[in-house]
Every structure is written in structure tokens, then in C-alpha cells.
């Protein structure tokens, strides 16, 4: 049985703490010592043998490599493997020969290799194990750190050796070969694993079974794998797992040889007694027993490695180690299923499916894919499948994309090779992943959907009744249509088609079958599609045409643009030709059949934009073009739906390209259509103006006027209708509404749109040769239209107000960003920026229509009414987002002053779920345009909120820091701080400006700086303290110095009223160890102690030892200690003085006024006569502080 994984792992397995293994500056290539030899002669003999063997072996394994222009020769095993010798087998052969000559020396060389591969370049001391001292030795098997010497010791058993590894410890170094980046170290890992595999392979016929080599290696790796040091644990675990993988291969070979020997023995035994020889039988019997003995030894090796390393490390705290263990156990199961394919081993993979790290879960899924892909193994996975199936089914929802993709692929294999393992509910849940935005996961789900539901065995052979040549494709299409309808996500057909494109491209490109289904007459064969099925099929046709012609996924799926290969480009061109040739003939018939259905026609009219229009002329298909133009004209006359009219207008625009041969034919048809539309509109307008003022139009007349204006507006969007003088006609309607206010909304909205398009076409027609009279007239028209839109911002109808606002925002953006390359004089005349009053009106409109919540009446609604209500709320949210985005564009492009953004930022936290992405993008863009002004806008927002909070509080009582309003301000400041990211250097000017403006605001209104009068805005320091962690260390000193300008000395820290100042001061001095005395007053300084270990490490790294103890240093007089610390900081190199000067004068000049610089820079000026030795001694540490030593608090 498979037990549940233990949620509280054992201390031995999971309580391993990471300790890094450092690298010393000098590599000790021969660092193994034997310390248990009795006489000096024996020691000298072993040393000479070691040197001879190393010299002999190095001559054959010598590898050269260019490094910095010099030839470096590899001598040790580590150097040979790390440089990547081509023939790894020759390296192993050299070591095997050395082992046969003297196995102790060769083994010590191999031990040194594993230690060096762990990144440790310390010393390894070996002594022979003595059985009489076993108890004493086992007590000494430990891993300790000596604080006196700063060295780490690890003593462990590697039978028959007792190894002691010694190395210096640097707690900041976590670098070792296996985790180093770059192609060189990736190759090292590959070479390391290959070396172990080749070593076992070369030793399997000789020294592998000498009961010495493998015992030593397994003991060594087991001991290192139990280390507290991450590098030892990681390297030895990888080596042990690869060693077991190689041993498993040896076991397989032995098993095959044993069966062969047994078979030969049986054959020889059955031979005729006269021809049978006893010698031959005895020989085969000995061979069989020899194989059995070797199998037993190999089995013991496998058990030792599995129990000694895998069981302890498969739940290690390091995810890389866990992933290595799971990857290898999957390899063992696939390689040797007879031994490993059982629940005793499968349970580890099942348990690790719940691991918190995605790389571990990924290795589990990859291992299971190798097992489930083989049908002969699946039958032995019943218990595992039943136990962990639910977990695997849920893993496509994994937050890691690669894990989700591999989980879907695993489920595909399970559905193919396991009968009825997935229920109908499981499959339905998995099908819906075709709509996900992550394309690899959607494609994997598309394969699952296609092979499980759409493509069934026998589809090609069995033709449905009446299906004809499209039987198979027709059946698949109907199943796809039903799936789209049943999933209730048929509005996302483009995503569905993109998911299936790689697997079902053949039948998805069968447009002839699709159009045949649409044109089929139900009365003839009784198989006509329903209206819903026809809608989905037309959407499928449009999606497949778009996918084939464009060759990239739909919007929202796939962030990067796909690079199309030559082969794909060729296929794309062939598909485009195929689409054109087919739909040129069929599309007019489809439009004629569905001419009254707005939804179907709007989709069908989008197909011509993917045509290869040259086919009309080369294929002599002009008659089909005439048929298409007739149908489009008829559709425009029948429909007033905006989507249909825009699709028709775009069709004319696509067909009216001047560079193609059919331009004149389409242009005549377009002109004729527009003449008819304008004639209808003029007739309706003449009838309207002939009536008396105030006459109310009936519903029919309003509908006719709305249809005429909407048709003209849709075509005016893509076509220049200036010669029809539409501007004067629509402007008169708008002026009439301003004067009388009696026009219906259905007339106002298209009239606004037509007037806007008319001015845009006139603006686009301006050129160098335009006379000034024309420019001045156009200027008057532009100003007039801006005033009209401003007036409509206060219209009684909400739809009119929103339409006027959107047009006005786009209009202002266009007028303020015109291209001056053609005519600078014209641009100067037509340039327009909104006045202050207009900017205020725009801001008030946003506050009222976007951020002001409407009161809702609680009503008991039915389920249908609730659904409609939710749909209305969603549409209303989309409108609000569009309004806010239009206004934010004005701020980003400097049409509206950036300070207006402060009013928008106030709603950042409150409306984060609805508008947070828009506000955050505006903040990012404005910061990119002007860092300082953007920072001032942020602090202005916080100041306004703080003032409103202060006015709402009772001034006679203390400020309640736990109040909701104050907490919201602090949260908003924290969110603003997070937007600066991790690059403190990039945002240093902005953050410093926030602190400067905040300090000035906090002490604004103070009567003096004597500490007796409490500034009214002092609590604002608590808010700007949220930005302290974004300051660099040098900038913290500058901001603190600037703060000193406003406070008295000594610091007025008595009472709770001054606590905000103390809190803010502490946030500036956080993580400072030496600046406390220099920056603060003498009464505020406090001694900063350091531990004995850290002090020793710092002095040891500088190559010096302390001359006096810490106790003696602490016993010095306080004045002397302060003076020493002051001299130490003041004695920094000229680089720091220059750095501060640069900060004051170049980067942050606003933090250092002239008087302040003279007052607070005396310490630096007085300490210029510092010895060069002191400057050089301190410059090393100073570089870390000034350049890369900035703390980044999360």
C-alpha cells in the first residue's frame, strides 16, 4: 500500500540548514593527506607513490585550454572534467590503471575529486579506520565550526577511511560549480554526470566487485549527503543518484547474462548423454553462479545508495536536490521496471506531486509521462493511478505554466493508454483549458480535446449518410459546434480555433465543407443547421480564415510576435490564395442568404480583408466582385446596426486600394452608394428644418434620421466625405440642440460623430500649399467644436455626456500632437491646449462619472433579472474604464497638467480592482516623462489626503493613528513606494524629492525650531517614512541632514507628540552602523557592537589580527570612542567626498541649499588632511556603501 506523505518530515530529513562552501583564492590541487602511518619511512613511501601515480596519470590525462591568452594544463580529475575532455573514457581508463597499481592513492584522488566538485578547496585528511577504536570514532563523526580559527570541520566515515574536511567559511559565499551559471558550468555538470556513468561502465568487468571501491565511494557520498553544507549535500546527492542509475544499468546487463547462461545450461543438459561433457556443464554452472553473486553484490549497492542517500534527500530543504532525486527515480522505473515499478517506489513520485516548488512537481510529471507512455507498464499502475489521479487532474491549474502544460500532456497519455481512467466530469473540466490565455497550455488542451472528442477512430472510413465527400469533416465540425455551444463560451471561438490549429488544421481549413453546410437546404436532405449552429459555424469560418491568413494567435494570447519561417510563410501565402479563390465565389451567396441577420452578416463581411485582391484580375473574376458589391450595398440599405455598417465601410476601404486593378470599379460603386446615403440624409434634414421650431418628431422619423446619420458616420470614419459638405449639416443640428435642447439622443450622438470625423478629414488634408485663409477658417471651426463638446459635458443625457467627453479627449490629444514636418506654420496656427477652466471641467467629469458610486436600491430580482443586472454593471464598468483611460492619456501626453493626476491617485487603493491597472500605467508613464514632477504629484496627493484627514479630526484631541482614514493614507503611501521597484539608483531622485517635499510640509506652520512648538503636520512624517527603504545609504544621510535643518539640538524627543519625528529619524538611520554619531547629536549616539565572530572575519579578510580585545576596546572613554568613530567615518577616501558632492550638486541639488551646505559640511571640510593610508584602508568598504551597498527592504 502507498501511505500518505508525512506532513512533518523527520529531523534528519528536513532539518538540514544551508551553509555555503567558499572558494579560497589559491586552489590546492593535492589536498589529501594520510595521517595514520606509523613510521616516517612509511609516510614518505606513500607520499612518493602518490606523487608518482599523480605524475604518471596526469601525463596521459593532460588537457590544454586557453585562459586569458595562456595555455592552462589540467592535472587533477576535477580540472580534466571541468575543462571537458572530449574522450571521457580515456580519463576513466587512466584512473582505473592507477587504481590497479595502488588503490589507496587512486581512491584518495577520487575522494579529492568529489570534494573539489563541491566547490571546497580546503584540506582533506584521511586516516585508516581501526576497529578497536570504532566507538570513539563514531562519537567523533561530527560537523562543527571553530570560532577561534574561523574554519569549518566535517569528520565522517568513508570506509575504510575516516575523512576530515577542513575549509575556511565565508557566510556570504553561496557559489559552487553545480549552481554556477553560464555554458561552461552547464557543461561541467554534464561532464560530471558522464564521468560517473563511464566510471561504473569501465569498472563493471573488474574492480567494481572488489568490495573496496564501491564501499568507499558509497560511504563517501552518503557522508557528504548528510552534511549541513548545501554544496556537499547537493553535489554528493547528484553523484549518488547518477551512480545508482549507472549501477541499475549494470544490474540489467548482469540479469540478461545470467538468463543467457541459464538457458545455455538447460540446452547443454538436454543434449544426448554421449555428446554431453561434464566440463561444459560445470563451466556454465560456475558462470551462472558468478552472475548470481555479482547480482547480489549489485543489489546490495543499490539498496545502500537508495537507503543511505535517496531516503534522506528526496525531501531535502533544497528544491534542486529534491528534483534530482525524483528525476532519477523516474529513470530507474523506466529502465528497470521489474525491480522499481511497484508502489514502494512510485509513492515517492506521488508524494512529491504536492511539493511547493514547481521544478520538483515538473520532474514528477516528466517521470510519469515516461511511464504512462508505455502500455505494457500502465497495467501495473492501477493503485498509483487511483490514488493520485485527482491530484494530476487538478495540476493543469498549477500557477507554474510549464507544470500545467506537462500535466495536461500526462493526462493525454493517461486517457490514451488507461481505459476509463478519466470520468466525463474530468474530461469536461479539461476541455475548457482550450480557452486559457497561456498558449502552450491551450495547445496541449487542444490536443486532448481533438483526440478525445473531435477525432474518433473510423471517421475516415465510415461515411455518414448523406455526407458525401465531406462526411468525416462534416461530422467533426458538428461535434466542434456542439462543444462550443455547450461550453457557453462561444464568444471566444478565436481562442478555441487557435488551440486546435496545431492538431486539427486539416479539417479546420476545409472551408468548402463549412460553406457547404451553411448553403445546404434543409428541405432537400433534412440536415440543415439551426440558427445557433449557423452563428457558431460562421464564427469558426472567420476565426480559421484569420488564423490561416495572419499566422499569429488572437489578441491576449502570446505576448511576443511569432517569427515566421520561410516554410510557414509559404504555407500562409498558399492558404491566403485558397481563401480568396473559394470565398470570392461563395461569399456573395452567403451574404444573400443571411442578408437580414446582422450578427451573421457582420462576421461574413470581415472575410474580404484577408483576400489576395490580385486574384480578381488574374482569375478574371470581376463578375463575382460585382455580385459582392451589390450584396454589400443591399446590406447597407437594410441595416442600421453599427457593427454591420462599420464592417461594410471597411470592406469598401479594403477593396478601394489605389494600387490594385479593381480600384476604379469599386470606387464607382462606393461613390454611387454614398450619393444615395447623402441624398436620403439631405431629404430628411430638409423636412426637419421645414417644420416649426419645437415640433416633436414621431418615433418613425427619429428612427429614419438616426439610421441615415449612423450610415453616413460609419462611412465617414473610413472614407473622406468632405466634398458632400457634411460638416455644416451636422453642426447646425448641434447648435440647434444647444439653443433649444429638444433633439433626441438618437440624433445627437451620430451628429457629434459626423462633425468630429469631418474636422479630422479637413485637418488631415492640411499641407504646405494650404492658404492662410483656409487655415484660419479651420482654426475657427476647431475652436468652435471644442466649445460645443465642452457644452455637451453638462447635457442632461448620460450617453451624450460620455460621448462628448470621449470625443473631446481624443480631439485635444490630436490638436496638441500634430506632425510639424510638413508645415510648421499650419501646426502653429492649429495648435491648441485646454485652458485651466476646461481642465477643471474634465477632472470634475471624471470624478463624478467614474469614481462616484451610484446608490443602488436593494430589490428582489429573479435569476434572469440578476443576470441582466450583472451584464449592465459589467458594461457600465467598461465605459468607466474607457473614460478614465482617455483622461489619463491627456495627462501622460502633457495635454493636461500632471498635478491633476494627484486627484486620480487618491482612488488608487480604493478602486484597485476596477481601475488599478490604468492608474498604475499612468504613474509609470508620467514617471518616465518627468521623474521630479511625478514625485511631486505623488507627495501632493498624500498632502491633500492628510489635510482632509486633519480637518476631519478634533484638533483638541490627539491624532488617532489607528483611524481608518490615516491607515488608508499610509497604505496608499506604501503602494506608491512599491511602484519604484528594486532599482534604487534609478529612482533615487524621485524618492529624495518625496522626502524633501514631505519634510517641508511636515514642518510647515511651525513657530520656530526651538523644539517648543509642535508643527501641525508633524504626523505626516509617518507617511513619508514608507519611502525610507527606497533611499540609498548616501541619500539617507543627505535626507537626515536636511531634516536636521528643521529640528533643534538636542532632539526634542520628550513626550508622545514627537514620536512621528523619532520614528521617521529611525527609518533614515536603519541599517546604519557607523553613521549614528556623525549624523546625530552627541547625546543621541549609541555604541554599535559587533560579535566576536564577525569582527574576526572582517579583520581576517583584511589580513590583520586585532591588537586589543573587544573588552579593552569597550573600556575606552566614551569621548575617545566617539572621536575614533568620527575620525573613521570622516577619513573616507576622496571618492566618498566626491560622491557626496555629486549627490549634493548634480543628483540631488534640492537637498543642499547654500546655507545648509556651509552649516553641515564642516566635518568633511575639517578632515581633508587625512593620511593616505587611512583613505586607502577605508576605500574598499566605502565602495560597497556608495556603489552597490544599498539595502533593499521588501
Automatic annotation (TrEMBL):
It is found in: Nucleus; Chromosome; Chromosome, Centromere. One of its GO terms (biological process) is cell division. Its main location: nucleus. PROSITE patterns: SCD. Residues 1176-1185 have a biased composition (Acidic residues). GO terms for cellular component: chromatin; chromosome, centromeric region; cohesin complex; nucleus. The keyword Coiled coil applies. InterPro entries: ARM-type_fold (IPR016024), Cohesin_Scc3/SA (IPR039662), HEAT_SCC3-SA (IPR056396), SCD (IPR020839), STAG (IPR013721). Residues 45-54 have a biased composition (Basic and acidic residues). Keywords: Cell cycle, Cell division, Chromosome, Chromosome partition, Coiled coil, Nucleus. Residues 310-395 form the SCD domain. Residues 274-304 form a coiled coil. Residues 1-65, 1080-1116, 1169-1194 are annotated as: Disordered. Residues 1-13, 24-38, 1101-1113 have a biased composition (Polar residues). GO terms for molecular function: chromatin binding. Residues 55-64, 1085-1094 have a biased composition (Low complexity). Component of cohesin complex, a complex required for the cohesion of sister chromatids after DNA replication. The cohesin complex apparently forms a large proteinaceous ring within which sister chromatids can be trapped. At anaphase, the complex is cleaved and dissociates from chromatin, allowing sister chromatids to segregate. Part of the cohesin complex which is composed of a heterodimer between a SMC1 protein (SMC1A or SMC1B) and SMC3, which are attached via their hinge domain, and RAD21 which link them at their heads, and one STAG protein. Belongs to the SCC3 family. This is Cohesin subunit SA. It comes from Patagioenas fasciata monilis.
Amino acid at each position: 500500500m502507498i501511505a500518505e506523505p508525512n506532513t512533518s518530515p523527520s529531523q534528519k530529513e528536513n532539518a538540514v540548514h544551508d551553509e555555503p562552501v567558499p572558494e579560497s583564492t589559491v586552489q590546492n590541487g593535492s589536498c589529501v593527506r594520510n595521517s595514520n602511518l606509523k613510521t616516517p619511512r612509511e609516510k614518505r613511501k606513500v607520499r612518493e607513490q602518490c606523487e608518482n601515480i599523480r605524475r604518471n596519470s596526469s601525463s596521459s590525462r593532460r588537457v590544454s585550454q586557453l585562459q586569458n591568452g595562456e595555455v592552462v594544463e589540467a592535472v587533477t580529475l576535477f580540472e580534466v572534467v571541468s575543462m571537458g575532455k572530449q574522450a571521457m573514457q580515456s580519463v576513466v581508463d587512466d584512473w582505473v590503471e592507477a587504481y590497479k597499481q595502488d588503490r589507496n592513492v587512486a581512491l584518495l584522488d577520487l575522494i579529492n575529486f568529489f570534494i573539489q566538485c563541491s566547490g571546497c578547496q580546503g584540506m582533506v585528511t584521511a586516516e585508516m579506520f581501526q576497529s578497536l577504536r570504532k566507538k570513539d570514532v563514531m562519537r567523533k563523526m561530527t560537523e562543527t565550526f571553530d570560532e577561534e580559527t574561523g574554519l569549518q570541520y566535517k569528520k565522517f566515515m568513508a570506509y575504510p577511511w575516516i575523512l576530515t574536511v577542513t575549509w575556511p567559511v565565508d557566510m556570504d559565499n553561496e557559489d559552487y560549480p553545480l549552481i554556477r551559471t553560464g555554458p561552461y558550468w552547464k557543461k561541467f555538470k554534464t561532464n560530471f554526470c558522464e564521468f560517473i556513468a563511464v566510471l561504473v561502465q569501465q569498472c563493471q568487468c573488474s574492480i567494481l566487485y572488489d568490495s573496496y571501491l564501491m564501499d568507499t565511494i558509497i560511504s563517501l557520498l552518503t557522508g557528504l549527503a548528510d552534511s549541513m553544507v548545501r554544496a556537499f549535500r547537493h553535489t554528493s546527492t547528484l553523484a549518488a543518484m547518477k551512480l545508482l542509475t549507472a549501477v541499475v544499468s549494470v544490474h540489467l546487463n548482469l540479469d540478461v547474462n545470467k538468463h543467457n547462461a541459464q538457458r545455455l545450461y538447460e540446452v547443454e543438459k538436454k543434449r544426448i548423454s554421449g555428446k554431453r561433457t561434464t566440463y561444459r556443464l560445470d563451466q556454465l554452472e560456475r558462470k551462472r553462479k558468478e552472475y548470481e553473486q555479482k547480482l547480489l553484490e549489485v543489489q546490495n549497492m543499490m539498496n545502500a545508495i537508495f537507503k543511505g542517500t535517496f531516503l534522506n534527500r528526496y525531501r531535502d530543504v533544497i528544491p534542486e536536490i529534491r528534483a534530482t532525486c525524483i528525476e532519477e527515480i523516474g529513470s530507474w522505473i523506466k529502465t528497470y521496471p521489474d525491480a522499481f515499478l511497484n508502489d514502494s517506489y512510485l509513492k515517492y513520485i506521488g508524494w512529491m506531486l504536492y511539493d511547493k516548488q514547481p521544478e520538483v512537481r515538473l520532474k514528477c510529471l516528466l517521470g510519469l509521462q515516461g511511464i504512462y507512455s508505455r502500455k505494457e507498464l500502465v497495467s501495473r499502475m492501477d493503485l498509483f493511478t487511483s490514488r493520485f489521479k485527482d491530484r494530476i487532474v487538478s495540476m493543469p491549474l498549477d500557477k507554474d505554466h510549464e507544470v500545467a502544460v506537462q500535466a495536461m500532456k500526462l493526462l493525454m497519455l493517461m486517457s490514451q493508454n488507461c481505459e476509463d481512467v478519466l470520468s466525463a466530469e474530468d474530461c469536461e473540466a479539461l476541455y475548457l483549458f482550450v480557452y486559457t490565455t497561456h498558449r502552450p497550455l491551450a495547445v496541449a488542451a487542444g490536443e486532448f480535446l481533438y483526440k478525445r472528442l473531435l477525432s474518433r477512430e473510423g471517421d475516415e472510413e465510415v461515411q455518414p449518410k448523406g455526407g458525401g465527400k465531406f462526411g468525416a469533416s462534416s461530422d467533426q465540425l458538428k461535434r466542434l459546434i456542439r462543444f462550443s455551444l455547450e461550453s457557453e463560451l462561444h464568444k471566444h471561438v478565436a481562442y478555441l480555433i487557435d488551440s486546435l490549429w496545431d492538431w486539427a488544421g486539416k479539417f479546420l481549413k476545409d472551408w468548402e465543407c463549412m460553406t457547404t453546410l451553411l448553403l445546404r437546404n434543409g428541405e432537400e436532405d433534412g440536415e440543415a443547421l439551426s440558427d445557433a449552429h449557423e452563428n457558431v459555424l460562421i464564427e469558426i469560418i472567420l476565426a480559421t480564415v484569420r488564423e490561416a491568413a495572419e499566422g499569429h494567435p488572437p489578441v491576449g494570447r502570446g505576448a511576443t510576435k511569432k517569427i515566421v519561417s520561410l516554410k510557414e510563410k509559404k504555407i500562409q501565402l498558399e492558404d491566403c490564395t485558397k481563401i480568396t479563390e473559394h470565398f470570392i465565389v461563395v461569399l456573395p451567396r452567403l451574404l444573400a442568404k443571411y442578408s437580414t441577420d446582422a450578427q451573421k452578416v457582420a462576421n461574413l463581411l470581415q472575410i474580404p480583408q484577408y483576400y489576395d485582391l490580385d486574384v480578381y484580375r488574374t482569375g478574371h473574376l470581376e463578375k463575382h466582385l460585382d455580385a459582392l458589391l451589390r450584396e454589400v450595398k443591399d446590406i447597407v440599405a437594410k441595416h442600421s446596426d453599427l457593427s454591420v455598417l462599420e464592417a461594410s465601410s471597411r470592406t469598401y476601404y479594403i477593396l478601394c486600394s489605389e494600387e490594385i486593378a479593381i480600384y476604379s470599379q469599386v470606387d464607382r460603386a462606393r461613390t454611387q452608394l454614398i450619393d444615395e446615403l447623402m441624398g436620403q440624409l439631405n431629404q430628411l434634414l430638409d423636412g426637419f428644418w421645414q417644420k416649426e421650431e419645437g415640433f416633436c418628431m414621431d418615433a418613425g422619423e427619429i428612427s429614419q434620421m438616426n439610421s441615415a446619420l449612423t450610415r453616413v458616420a460609419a462611412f465617414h470614419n473610413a472614407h473622406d466625405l468632405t466634398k458632400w459638405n457634411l460638416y455644416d449639416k451636422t453642426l447646425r443640428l448641434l447648435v440647434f440642440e444647444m439653443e433649444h435642447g429638444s433633439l433626441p439622443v438618437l440624433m445627437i450622438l451620430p451628429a457629434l460623430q459626423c462633425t468630429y470625423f469631418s474636422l479630422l478629414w479637413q485637418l488631415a488634408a492640411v499641407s504646405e500649399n494650404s492658404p492662410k485663409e483656409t487655415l484660419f477658417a479651420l482654426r475657427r471651426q476647431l475652436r468652435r467644436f471644442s466649445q460645443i463638446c465642452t457644452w455637451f459635458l453638462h447635457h442632461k443625457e448620460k450617453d451624450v455626456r460620455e460621448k462628448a467627453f470621449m470625443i473631446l479627449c481624443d480631439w485635444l490629444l490630436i490638436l496638441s500632437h500634430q506632425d510639424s514636418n510638413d508645415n510648421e506654420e499650419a501646426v502653429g496656427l492649429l495648435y491648441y491646449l485646454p485652458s485651466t477652466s476646461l481642465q477643471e471641467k474634465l477632472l470634475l467629469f471624471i470624478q463624478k462619472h467614474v469614481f462616484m458610486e451610484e446608490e443602488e436600491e436593494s430589490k428582489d430580482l429573479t435569476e434572469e433579472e440578476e443576470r441582466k443586472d450583472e451584464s449592465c454593471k459589467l458594461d457600465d464598468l467598461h465605459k468607466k474604464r474607457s473614460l478614465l483611460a482617455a483622461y489619463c492619456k491627456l495627462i501622460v501626453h502633457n495635454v493636461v497638467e500632471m498635478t491633476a493626476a494627484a486627484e486620480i491617485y487618491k482612488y488608487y487603493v480604493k478602486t484597485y480592482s476596477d481601475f488599478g491597472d490604468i492608474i498604475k500605467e499612468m504613474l509609470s508613464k508620467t514617471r518616465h516623462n518627468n521623474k521630479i514632477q511625478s514625485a511631486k504629484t505623488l507627495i501632493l496627493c498624500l498632502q491633500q489626503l492628510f489635510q482632509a484627514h486633519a480637518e476631519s479630526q478634533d484638533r483638541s484631541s490627539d491624532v488617532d493613528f489607528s483611524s481608518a482614514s490615516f491607515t488608508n493614507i499610509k497604505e496608499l503611501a506604501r503602494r506608491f513606494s512599491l511602484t519604484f521597484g528594486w532599482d534604487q539608483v534609478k529612482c533615487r531622485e524621485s524618492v529624495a524629492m518625496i522626502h524633501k517635499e514631505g519634510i517641508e510640509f511636515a514642518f510647515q506652520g511651525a513657530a520656530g525650531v526651538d523644539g517648543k512648538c509642535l508643527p501641525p503636520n508633524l504626523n505626516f512624517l509617518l507617511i513619508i517614512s514608507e519611502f525610507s527603504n527606497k533611499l540609498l545609504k548616501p541619500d539617507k544621510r543627505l535626507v537626515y541632514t536636511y531634516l536636521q535643518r528643521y529640528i533643534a539640538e538636542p532632539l526634542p524627543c520628550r513626550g508622545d507628540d514627537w514620536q512621528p519625528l523619532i520614528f521617521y529619524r529611525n527609518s533614515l538611520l536603519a541599517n546604519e552602523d557607523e553613521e549614528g554619531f556623525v549624523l546625530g547629536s552627541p547625546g543621541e549616539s549609541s555604541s554599535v557592537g559587533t560579535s566576536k565572530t564577525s569582527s574576526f572575519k572582517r579583520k581576517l579578510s583584511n589580513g590583520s589580527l586585532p591588537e586589543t580585545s573587544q573588552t579593552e576596546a569597550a573600556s575606552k572613554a566614551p569621548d575617545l570612542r566617539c572621536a575614533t568613530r568620527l575620525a573613521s567615518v570622516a577619513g573616507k577616501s576622496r571618492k566618498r567626498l566626491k560622491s557626496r558632492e555629486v549627490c549634493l550638486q548634480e543628483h540631488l541639488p534640492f537637498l543642499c541649499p547654500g546655507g545648509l551646505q556651509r552649516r553641515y559640511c564642516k566635518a568633511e571640510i575639517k578632515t581633508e588632511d587625512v593620511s593616505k593610508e587611512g583613505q586607502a584602508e577605508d576605500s574598499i568598504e566605502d565602495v560597497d556603501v556608495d556603489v552597490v551597498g544599498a539595502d533593499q527592504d521588501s
